[in-house]
Design a protein that fits this description.
Elements lengths: L33 H14 L8 E2 L1 H8 L3 H13 L3 E4 L3 E4 L4 H24 L6 H11 L12
Helix pairs in contact: 1-3, 2-3
Length: 153
């Protein structure tokens, strides 16, 4: 089943047509509602900066663009609202929220704690550890400071 062609929303200049995405294999039969599909599409649009923080839109604009009724759009937007991606503006539609970089830092700190704890538990275990696997992981994780990629933005 081909998705309907993307259209541009007249007063939202940042909504751009989406490139064709790969379709799932035919043998993977997963039941998904239209709301699930709209939710996944809108979440991809936010992640791919097709909808950028600060963009405002209405349920009608999204339903027209995706070729679905307002009900699955509304259901998808409420899910995205619960996850902190969008907010409802009273009688004005919806707005994409800015990213919470403090939350990203907290998640990164949590990841460091979990990974460090996992390595300590592996090293303290009574069973033998495959040294070649640890060396491979060390080559991935322990990149010298001069070779690390940086974000200069």
């Amino acid at each position: 089943m081909k998705p309907p062609p993307a259209t541009t929303i007249s007063h939202v200049s940042t909504v751009r047509p989406r490139p064709a995405s790969p379709t799932p294999a035919a043998d993977t039969a997963v039941f998904r509602t239209r709301a699930d599909e709209v939710y996944a599409q809108l979440k991809r649009d936010v992640a791919d900066f097709i909808l950028v923080p600060g963009d405002r839109f209405t349920e009608n604009e999204i339903s027209d663009r995706l070729g679905v009724s307002r009900t699955p759009v509304r259901q998808a937007l409420f899910r995205l609202q619960q996850e902190g991606f969008v907010e409802v503006l009273f009688r004005s539609g919806w707005r994409v929220l800015p990213f919470d970089f403090d939350q990203f830092e907290q998640l990164y700190d949590l990841r460091m704690v979990l990974e460090t704890t996992a390595v300590h538990r592996i090293c303290e275990a009574d069973h033998r550890v495959d040294r070649s696997l640890l060396d491979t992981l060390a080559g991935i994780w322990l990149v010298p400071v001069a070779e690390r990629s940086t974000d200069t933005a």
